[in-house]
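User: Predict the structure for this protein chain, please.
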Amino acid sequence: MSWSERLQSVFVAVAALAGLGVGLVTPLGAMGEHLVIPALLVMLIAVFVQLDASHLKDVSKAKGLVAVSLVLNYAFTPLLAWALGLGLLGEQPDLRIGLLLLLVTPCTDWYLVFTAMARGHAGIATALLPVNLVLQLLLLPVYVILLGGEAAMVDTGTLLEAVGLMLLTPLVVAFTLRWVSTRAKGEQWRDEHVNRWANRIVMPLLCLAVFAMFAWQAPVVAESGTEMLLLLPPLLAFFIILPLVATGIARIMRLTGPQRVTLTMVTTARNSPIALGIAVAAFPDRPLIAVALVVGPLIELPILGALSQIIRHRDKTAPAEQGSAAISDR
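Assistant: Here is the predicted structure, written as structure tokens:
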């Protein structure tokens, strides 16, 4: 894991504080409104262009793990998010929606880094990435409408437009770019140039989007600073409950060490960049929802770093990279 990956949460926090300062002491904050969505769109294109569907074949080699991960991500987690929001943020509808958007979107990028750090199965983890991306694309509007209740207060058409803009559009652009570059220059050139370029700009673009959003909404953030602290209990509860549940189920199923690590990481890590894009596009007049989504990775990334060491697979004779030899067909 590179030093820049280790410091992601620090970079996001610095970007948020810098944007807040600019927005409070200068008139430039209003310009942030015009930067947030473009920065997030380009960032998502950079994330999606690195996706490789060739790993999907690994899904069939670990059917039990895949099935459990889908149940945890798309049945258990939404219900847990709804319960945590209702129980701990009942009087804060915007924070509830922000929490819901964050927790119902499984990660499609940085969980791979933490899975590798913990010696999980890289093939299965990568194979689940496009599966989770498609499912959250289809199910996110359903979760917001069904579980958000009156707190959501968003037109279905508006929500679908936001999902189309912030998920479907960058996905189509990314796969078009990937296809064109492969046909024109070959896979090696694509990996060495397009993918490397895309990997390098993701974090700067995320920081730019966070900076612009906090500069734009600085007065709202300043007025609601204490309310942000209310997000800590439900977020901490989630990042304690999910690893415990995933690890417990993995032991009951007698999954191999790399599979256990993979199940824990793929069900714990969340997709705050995508959730942030949806929040900005679908709820432009409710900035507290988007601000709540920036708090998520500030808590999540350090926890994932610690978790990767706690659940690390210790058997060095059977590393994750050995692939299908370490997978039992369940």
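DSSP finds 15 helices and no strands in the chain.
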